[in-house]
Amino acid sequence: MDFFFYPRSVAIFGSFKEGAIAYEILRNIVDGGFEGRIIPVNPKGGTVQVSGKTFEIRPKLEEPVDTAIIVIPAKFVPSLIDEIGDLIEGAVVISAGFSEVGNVELERELVEKAKRHGVRLIGPNCAGIFGVHRKFFGSFEVRVKPGGLALISQSGAFGGAALAMGNEEGIGFSAFVSYGNAADLNESDFLRYFADDENTKAIALYIEGVKDGRRFMEALHYAASRKPVIVLKAGKSASGAKAAASHTGSLAGSYEIYRAAFKQTMAIEVEEMEELFDAAKAFEMYPKAGRRVAVITNSGGPGVLATDKLEKLGLEIAKLGDETVEELRSFLPPQCSVKNPIDLIADADYKRYKRTIEVVCRDENVDSLLVICVPPIFISSEEVARAVIEADCPKPIIVNFMAGELVRDGVNLLEKRGLKNFPTPERAAKALAWLSLR
User: For the chain, first and last CA: distance in Å?
Assistant: First the structure.
């Protein structure tokens, strides 16, 4: 499916009046820096200006392209596929008005036409696709920065919201696909594709229901055996399952069946959007982490909250070796607690944090570290961030700097060095729990 996510050329079919969906997709592709060939198509012809560039609108497609993005009335889509089928590899059908509103025969005709020409379909009734490393933003959703997360969403609206939230959380994406009615390609196909995509480090999947459970299980197992797969399943309750069925036409089925499938395949199930991105942030930094955690904090309360959450999640509060304890005592003020969690007290500075991290990191009983910083007004959060960044520690370090404006500079510095911040002790603890599942 490289012709979808790494295309060299694209044709867009629809209205190119300013504000129309086809126009907005064209603008997104141009503004995103796509370096391939772009062909707008509308029977009326003419020209369209987008972001300082002028494009000739072709009355019909007459040359081969990798992908077509189609935003025309549903009743005309099958005949368009018949017309251009020999010139395209794949089609992204944004148009709605198919099986989701009862037009099952029209959708069946669309699939038949596509199969006749060997064309693969995404959609219909979808929000489009991104191939971020190709600078291809074939959707009307907000653009994102390049990174390692592929987002597969059954819901276009959820996908758009998730992309915007991912931007706020500092997530980098490799790809995005909203697959709508899944008339042809579905979640199973995309799981297998991104499992083998070298730019994808982790896969996030939002599903409401699937049509072929066995195929989904096989694809999920294949993908999760190669890289982290983070799943957010909607439609868990009886009412939610009914809503999901009416939304997508898929079989939501018993949640317990899905839950068993996720456990069996070692997919990582999360409960809400916030957790999906926390898990993605964790896996963007580290492939995995051990279960024995050392907590380093300058505030007792957050350290206790982190400890409680770690134990509740089944992780171990590492028992520090005697040599580690003695070395910590040799340079920390007597008011500091050298038991795990290690409390450096409020005035902990660059030197105290850095040396403590390095000493604890060398302990063979410690697999990973959770570093908490709640800076007083006389200690810069950037100073503590530099200590975390510059500490000689090859083990996974998850950080919780809080809160808000007080730590913004430190969090920005961490982000520049590829370290993501988790805003609460509990969210940081969960990040380590997910890493321990790999």
Answer: 27
